[in-house]
Write a structure and sequence with these properties.
Shape: elongated
Number of strands: 12
Distance between the termini: 57 Å
Radius of gyration: 19 Å
Helix content: 40-55%
Strand content: 15-25%
Order of helices and strands: EHEHEHEHEHEEEEHEHHEE
């Protein structure tokens, strides 16, 4: 069965070029030239992956990504932008995008990235099915990896998909010092060429959600010069 790729891109020439190359690679494609139309197609067409431009009419790529993740739609997303700004990159990934490409790019590279993201996505589903850990509990924090749910003191805490995956990985590796590069590789499964600020931003958000005082964390400790370590809070 052909995998369906939704292309949300307002530049018709780019959308047509991407569609042609993806069709040649064996994918079915659906094109939306407007943000709102693209968002609705993402919900109705249920594609295998979305190629999403950042700057769009009526609803931009950030809004679309944010809304889909809030709706618990876990379709992989590759974001496209004409800007080469660190803020855009971090923001896109923070909101739950799976990869990020800056224009201009070669259609062949986009096809290669799509194949890689789909492989990772399918591999993650298999890992979740095979995982014996239905619940992980450390201190008052409890997570259910298969259900994408987390609770602190029995109250549910909401995380973006990437925040949740990072949290689970840290908890599964309790008491191990993990470098930023290790976390990038394990959670994002892509080499962002040393853009470790992506990790720091996510760690900061996790602390805000699970720590009583994010400036004096008891769960996620910073190991200066190395990375981070998840610990069991010490009894007072």
């Amino acid at each position: 069965m052909q995998k369906k790729i939704l292309i949300i891109e307002d530049e018709q020439s780019i959308a047509t070029l991407l569609s042609y190359n993806l069709t040649q690679a064996g994918y079915e494609t659906v094109i939306a030239n407007d943000g709102r139309e693209g968002y609705e197609l993402a919900l109705s067409e249920k594609p295998s992956l979305i190629v999403l431009d950042l700057m769009l009419p009526s609803m931009d790529g950030v809004e679309i990504c944010k809304e889909l993740r809030m709706q618990k739609v876990s379709i992989p997303i590759i974001m496209l932008t004409a800007k080469d700004e660190e803020f855009d990159k971090v923001l896109g990934l923070e909101l739950g995008a799976d990869d990020y490409m800056t224009k201009p790019f070669s259609p062949r590279e986009v096809v290669a990235r799509i194949k890689a993201v789909l492989r990772r996505s399918e591999g993650m589903k298999v890992e979740q099915q095979d995982s014996g850990a239905s619940e992980i509990k450390i201190g008052d924090l409890k997570v259910f990896p298969e259900r994408y749910e987390a609770f602190m003191n029995e109250e549910q805490v909401e995380f973006t998909p990437k925040e949740f995956e990072l949290l689970v990985y840290l908890m599964e590796n309790k008491n191990r010092v993990l470098t930023r590069d290790q976390l990038l590789s394990a959670v994002w499964k892509y080499d962002f060429a040393g853009d470790t600020r992506i990790v720091d931003v996510h760690i900061s958000h996790l602390r805000e959600k699970i720590e009583d005082n994010s400036r004096k964390p008891v769960f996620i400790k910073t190991i200066r010069g190395l990375g981070y370590k998840f610990e069991e809070p010490k009894a007072v």
